[in-house]
Amino acid sequence: MAFKLCILLAVAAVAKAGVVPVAPAGPVLAKIEDFDPAPQYSFAYDVQDSLTGDSKAQYETRNGDIVQGSYSLVEPDGTRRIVEYTADPVNGFNAVVNREPAVAVAPVVAKAAPVVASAPVVARTAPLLAAPVAYTIPRAVAARLNVPVGAPVVV
C-alpha cells in the first residue's frame, strides 16, 4: 500500500511541475561589429527658465573608459549645487560637490502705465524710522511665551 502511495505522489509532483523551459543550445553573443572598443561622446545642456526659476546645466565627455563631467542645479533653499565628477577603471567614480550661496533674485515687476499728470514733489522732513511703540502682549501670546499678561513690549 505504501508503494502505491509513493507512486501516486510522484505522479502528482510531475504533473504539478508542468513544462520546464529549455535553454538555447549555444551562448548568445553580441555581434562583434556592434562593439566599440573606445567609445567617445560629448554632450551638454543648459536650462534657465525665468518663469519657473528652474536653473540647471550639465556637460559630460567620454573618451574610452574615462568619463568627465559636471552638473549644477539650484536647490529649494536657493543655493546652487555644483558637482564635478570623473570615472575611470583605476580610480572608479569620484565626485566633488560644491555649494554656492543663494543669489538674491529681483522679482519681476509689471511695467506701469505712463503717468499723464504728475503730482507735486513734497520734501520729506519726517524721519524714516518711527519712534519706538509700546504695546501689551495679548493673553494667548503671553501664555505661550511664559511672560506675565499685560507686560509692556517696546518695538
Automatic annotation (TrEMBL):
The entry's keywords: Cuticle, Signal
A GO term for molecular function: structural constituent of cuticle
Domain of life: Eukaryota
InterPro entries (alphabetical): CHIT_BIND_RR_consensus, Insect_cuticle, Insect_Cuticle_Struc_Prot
A Pfam family that the UniProt record links to this protein: Chitin_bind_4
Secretion signal, residue range per the UniProt entry: 1-17
Cellular compartments per GO CC: extracellular matrix; extracellular space
Protein name: Larval cuticle protein A2B-like
Organism, as annotated: Neodiprion lecontei (Redheaded pine sawfly)
Lineage of source species: Eukaryota, Metazoa, Ecdysozoa, Arthropoda, Hexapoda
Gene: LOC107219115
